[in-house]
Amino acid sequence: MTLSDIRISTERLIIRPFAANDFPSFLAYHRLPEVYRFLYQAPLDETAARAKFAKASAPRLEDDGDVAVFAVERQDDGVVLGEVLLKLASKAAGQAETGYIFNPAFAGKGYATEAMRSVLNLGFSTLNFHRIFARLDALNSGSVGVVERLGMRREAHLIENDRFNDTWGDEFVYALLRREWLAKGQTA
Length: 188
Description:
The protein is built from 6 helices and 8 strands. By secondary structure, the chain is α+β, with helices and mostly antiparallel strands. It has a single domain (3-183), classed as 3-Layer(aba) Sandwich (Aminopeptidase). Helix 1 (23-30) packs across helix 3.
């Protein structure tokens, strides 16, 4: 199975590669300032979003730095709610970074936790990563809740480690090992 063939169904969601007709939904949340508030960059204009979408539409995890981004689609109506990703941090060490971006219109319904659970399962049970970590802004309480509900542990609190628009931000690093995930009874 290649990453382009991934299609994971959860109770309410389908995690799959982006398709060409997903661009309007992708653009809708990538242009929102509230989405980029914790990403240390400006929201995307249409040109930048098209470039990012082209990369997101070709998932790969072959070399360090490669990223596999997947659309998160709601099963009952086909609406794309956001995206989840795995980034190959170190092939030699079996480590990946994970992350997600969701349209805030769909916040507070548990979609991010449900989607991330399936991505962690993919990373540990199918791709056999040893460790998966998430980096997030310390003020992003919604994301802190997501990773903690998934059983990830806080490994670091980096103080003023990034700056955007002359504002310093702190970052948390959360992580989980494959053996910890499997011990929780999480399997494919």
